[in-house]
Amino acid sequence: MVPAGSIDGVDTFPDAARRVDRWCPQGRSMVSTPSSMPPAGSIDGARRVDRWCRHLPRCRPQGRSMPPAPSSMPPAGNFTLLCRSVLGIMAPMGTLPPGPRSSLPSLVRYLRDPIGCMQPLTKAYGATVTFPGKPALVMTGDPAGIKAIYTADPDTFAPLNQDLGVFIGPRSLILAGGAEHKRARKLMMPPFHGARMRAYGEQMVRLAAQRAEAFQVGQTLTMTELLQELSLDVILQVVFGVTERAAMKTLGALLLEITNGISPLLALVPALRHEFGGVGPYARFLARRRRLHAALDDLIQKGRAARPREDVLSLLLAARAEDGSPMDDEEIRDQLLLLVVAGHETTAIAMAWALYALHRPENAAALGRLRDELATLGPEPAPEELAKLSYLEAVCNETLRRYPLAPAPAPRKLLRPFELLGYDLPAGVGVVPAISVAHFREDVYPDPMRFSPERFLDRTYSPFEFLPYGGGARRCLGAAMASHEMKLVLGTLLRRHHFRLASPKPDPGAVRAANAGPRYGVKMIVG
Ligand code: HEM
Known about the structure:
This protein is an alpha+beta fold. It has helices at residues 14-23, 43-52, 78-87, 104-112, 118-125, 143-151, 165-168, 178-188, 197-213, 223-239, 245-261, 264-268, 281-305, 312-318, 329-359, 364-375, 383-387, 390-402, 435-438, 455-458, 479-496; strands spanning 128-131, 137-140, 157-159, 220-222, 412-414, 418-420, 423-425, 430-433, 499-501, 510-512, 515-517, 523-526. It contains 21 helices and twelve strands. Strand 6 and strand 7 (423-425) form a beta hairpin.
């Protein structure tokens, strides 16, 4: 048995030794401490042993086979840990789950392979990983950890990326915290409630059918672009209430300028956000934002003057908080911008991934089964009939699982200490449910890389195992709308046309703004 003594004072804590015994022979499997583990007398001390003992010479005389540490693992001894703490690189590492020494390689890997980038880290450290930084980020793909985050009191967290306010409006829902978030969410929820989808379905099907009518046999379509335009049209009509063609075109162009102008580097590296005398990507972005703000202000004024309509903007203008106060124009403008940024590219990418997956040769059976199901409907089915198809729904869910758009959604910053899977995380740390880890767990989704809609017919998954829309108090506001749109648009396109992929090359995905989308745009030939 490995004596746990004298490493960071562990000798006074009896369960530490058992943990060492568990970890040392296993080498690389540095999974997070299971919640079933008895609480350690000194949690800090014991956990440090969990993570570091196999790198310390003290363990070796015990005759255990000590596999080499993974190269990304810090060669930590007390001195190294101390230096890091002093330098602030890994500030409170003593209480955090294991993770790589630097976050930079992971960031680079994320930009190259947003969906698969967590897999090597999961192999090295387990489903819960700490990324050092200021603040450190703890990502967990463990359903128990995800549950702890999503079911915690929402006031435990604040949204972390306040600096993203330049892109999505400083007063937008996604950046609000505490009581402000609760107030805004309550005001914004009703137009996105599942029951409202009936009102929006007709418009979604009509817009998809109009696009599909223009397709010509043999034509090559870049699905990400086409579907982005289509879901922008849906947002313009359903959210903004703009139905007149010319107005849709003008506003649509301004919105696309903004959403396409948010480069991943600008979003991830605040230091690049300088105007540099009016040239460069950030200066261009700010000029576009000014033009868009003017157009949105105009739309809001017209909305206030018009009679109430069915669209989201109209409902937001009429919404009142508990104290009877409405949202002011500036807040509505920020919320509208958020809805476009959060809503149109995400849904478009999800639909493009679905078409890509269905038309891969290995998934021919899934496409066949879906086509058979669609053929059971009459010539002009009501949107609700499409929305009720169970295999179509399973295809959409499997797409969102296999190709998570937000592999790691916006971090939540801890406002107070928080226990996660037995680790006592200090205030200030960011926590992130790692969708890209949760959706690829072998124990939950056997053969996880395979696209298999049948999974969603055979069993149901908990909200901590299947979480394409995040969860808890910040679960995606547009989830019902996105799922509805996916089913109606895919159903409408596939009922009217056959397609094949223009290239057999697999698409590993790439970062597009904040989302993981197809790298090659999903080029398809109309059959
Ligand atoms: C397939 C499409 C979509 C996916 C996969 C998706 C995914 C997500 C995710 C993962 C989050 C973060 C949740 C969290 O932090 O726990 C989120 C937040 C959000 N989404 Fe979506 N989304 C989609 C479509 C939409 C649409 C269509 C809209 C609206 C038009 C929308 C509006 C929002 C808003 C407003 C938030 C912030 C919620 C809050 O902070 O309270 N999303 N979405």
